[in-house]
Amino acid sequence: MRLLTSLAIAAAALLLSACQAATPASGQDETPISSAPTSEPTPTPDEPDSIVFTLDGLEYRIDGDEGTVAFEVEPMTAFLTELTDADPQIEDVEDWWGGGTVVAHHYSWDGASFVVFENSTWAPTAITAPSIGGVPVSTRDGIAVGSSREQVEALDPLEVWDEDGDGSFDQLGLETRVVPDTRSLSRPGETGEEFILVVISDGTVSSLQHGNDFSDL
């Protein structure tokens, strides 16, 4: 009985000794856990400043700021004035019948202008330069003042008007959009449309404007 007890004690001692041998002492033979080196995120190149001429206004990205300026007198005047760092030149527009009545006002900056009629806030802006205040202006398809006729015609534009009657249209329409509750003046019985009016002079784009086929103004 005493022998079995002694054997049991010896076996327990051997087991304890084996466990202690299998467990490394604190601070010995431990491999420190190191996290994988983290790389700095690659910065995204800044988007270049740009203005996109749309049917709803001028979409801009300037100095990281983005937005749309509607074709309305106050916001458009403020935007173009800040962009060009110049106040607009404002001229009265008299009626077309020689009566001498002022019916509208013509606002102009270097490369941009609009006419606003009395009792109206609608300011359909015309762009007459490749850039305004150093910021390039184009349509979504990249058509800008200075683009070739061939570039415009490749987009299958609407044929609006052949001013000189030579069979080659001088005014073409892009991004045509139907306007409910209007009637086309050029397509009797059909709903009117609005479009980006591209004016061609000497084979190149001379102006981007807001156009439609339901108004005679």
The biggest beta sheet is recorded as: 5 strands, mixed
N/C terminus separation: 122 Å
Structural class: alpha+beta
Helical residue percent band: 10-25%
Give average pLDDT, whole number. Answer: 85
Low-confidence parts, pLDDT < 50 over ≥5 residues?
Answer: 1-29
Helical stretch tally: 3
Shape: globular
Secondary structure: number of strands: 13
C-alpha Rg, in Å?
37 Å
The topology string of helices and strands comes to HEEEHEEEEEEHEEEE
Strand content: 35-45%
| Main β-sheet, spatial strand arrangement | 3-2-1-9-8
Describe this entry's structure for a reader:
The chain has 3 helices and 13 strands; from the N terminus they run αβββαββββββαββββ. By secondary structure, the chain is an alpha+beta fold. A hairpin with an 8-residue loop joins strand 6 (112-117) and strand 7. The radius of gyration is 37 Å and the shape is globular.
Tags for this entry?
13 strands, globular, disordered N terminus, five-stranded mixed sheet, 217 residues, alpha+beta
Characterize this entry briefly.
By secondary structure, the chain is α+β, with helices and mostly antiparallel strands. The protein has helices at 2-22, 73-84, 149-153; strands spanning 50-53, 57-62, 65-70, 89-94, 102-109, 112-117, 126-127, 131-132, 135-138, 158-161, 171-183, 191-201, 204-212. The chain has a five-stranded mixed sheet with strand order 3-2-1-9-8, covered by helices on one side. Strands 4-5-6-7 form a four-stranded antiparallel sheet, covered by helices on one side.
Please describe the topology of this protein.
Elements: H1 2-22, E1 50-53, E2 57-62, E3 65-70, H2 73-84, E4 89-94, E5 102-109, E6 112-117, E7 126-127, E8 131-132, E9 135-138, H3 149-153, E10 158-161, E11 171-183, E12 191-201, E13 204-212
Parallel strand pairs: 1-9
Antiparallel strand pairs: 1-2, 2-3, 4-5, 5-6, 6-7, 8-9, 10-11, 11-12, 12-13
